[in-house]
Design goal:
The protein has 246 residues and is of the alpha/beta class. The protein has helices at 17-31, 50-60, 75-85, 105-114, 117-120, 136-153, 169-173, 185-191, 215-234; strands at 7-13, 37-44, 64-69, 90-93, 123-128, 165-168, 195-200. It has one domain (7-234): Spore Coat Polysaccharide Biosynthesis Protein SpsA, Chain A (Alpha-Beta Complex). The chain is 41% helix and 17% strand. Strands 3-2-1-4-6-5-7 form a seven-stranded mixed sheet, sandwiched between helices. Strand 2 (37-44), helix 2 (50-60) and strand 3 form a beta-alpha-beta unit. Helix 1 (17-31) runs parallel beside helix 2 (50-60) and helix 6 packs parallel to helix 9 (215-234). It is globular and about 55 Å long.
């Protein structure tokens, strides 16, 4: 893998040992022959066999690279670590629980390529789980959270919590980073002068393991996060930079 790939699939995980090999296999099947790609995993302080399964995946698929947080730092930091370690200029993001379908990535990539080159740098393509395969309580909580967020931030995105996203590495590295910032990528992209397009993606039941987050925990951190992003949106400035004759 000496050539720089076009696409990096970044996957943050914590205690997802049983989902590693099935998801890597699906990513490879979806992208092999479509685009030159790498797969970047960040093990966010797992206490199960996640690390061993990542070694097995790397042995079977040369596109796999991974790093580990010594202690858990949360999903947003794991995503940031993965993006920093990626070589590719384009990032596809997936959750590590197998609920996001890697088969959606080629169509998202095609949509990206169809955009004028000058517009791609600040384009975020966000997955929309129109038919979610979650419990009724989680679907209700997500619907309520999306409605409140859309009213407060006007980010025109029906499902910011979907892990399936595609964006440029440069755009992400230019965004402010904080815990749980991955839930606000559309608003932060708009704040940076970018555009967001939502596309319907497949959503599946969790393959194995259990979620690391409860509805109550999401709600408790959601209020201060929302207020903080509202402040960021109101304090943003996007100058039009001109280079005069030298």
């Amino acid at each position: 893998m000496n050539a720089v790939p076009e696409l990096a699939v970044v996957v943050p995980v914590k205690n997802e040992a049983d989902n590693i090999l099935p998801l890597v296999t699906e990513i490879h099947a979806a992208l092999h022959g479509v685009v030159e790609f790498e797969i970047i995993y960040v093990d966010d302080g797992s206490t199960d066999a996640t690390g061993q399964k990542l070694l097995e995946a790397k042995g079977r698929f040369p596109q796999v690279r991974f790093v580990r947080h010594r202690a858990s730092c949360g999903q947003s930091q794991a995503i940031a670590t993965a993006v920093k370690h990626a070589r590719a200029p384009l990032i596809a993001m997936l959750d590590g629980d197998g609920q996001n379908d890697p088969a959606d990535i080629p169509s998202m990539l095609a949509r990206w390529r169809a955009e004028p080159e000058a517009s791609r740098e600040k384009l975020l393509i966000a997955g929309w789980r129109a038919n979610r395969k979650d419990t009724s309580s989680r679907r209700w909580a997500s619907k309520a959270a999306n409605a409140i967020r859309a009213w407060a931030l006007r980010d025109n995105t029906p499902d910011t919590g979907c892990g399936s996203k595609l964006f440029s590495r440069a755009l992400f590295l230019d965004l402010p980073r904080f815990d749980h910032m991955h839930r606000y990528l559309p608003a932060l992209t708009i704040r940076a002068g970018g555009t967001v397009e939502s596309v319907v993606v497949n959503h599946r039941p969790r393959g194995a393991g259990a979620s690391n987050y409860s509805n109550l925990r999401r709600a408790l951190v959601g209020v201060p996060d929302l207020l903080g992003v509202m402040w960021l949106m109101r304090r943003s400035r996007n100058p039009v930079v001109e280079i005069p004759p030298q």
